[in-house]
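BUG: 3D viewer hangs when loading the predicted structure for this chain

Environment: internal workstation, default settings.
Expected: structure renders.
Actual: progress bar stalls at 90%.

Input used:
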Amino acid sequence: MVGTEVSELADLDRAGLRRLVDAFYVDVRADELLGPVFAKAIGDDWEPHLSRMTEFWSTVMLGTKSFKGKVYQTHAALADGAPVTPEHFLRWITLWTRHTQRLFPGAVADQLQRMAAGMGRNLLAGLFQQSTQVAV
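Structure tokens produced before the viewer hung:
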């Protein structure tokens, strides 16, 4: 099984991550809880955000080091300016899990979900002083 997981992860590429980011954010934009928060933060020009998130996930999953940004500070500023709650993060994880399972084989989806859950736990702890368990 380990050999299969390594093989599946090796098949992950930037184009696949871009497909994930694009599909995922279509649902985020349409989501009644997340959509308004993202609309306020991003406005109508989504391409820079989609490209930035593709670079982020390429850095996380492929080790490209192409993302240059401050994840915590960006989310802290967002939480200060909008009614962002732990429920927003949990909804984000739910949508992320749905898309990763739909678009990728088991090991890749699992790794993408684990990485997102870990980041979610850290953000929840830092922004809301919560240790809410983020399930994947």
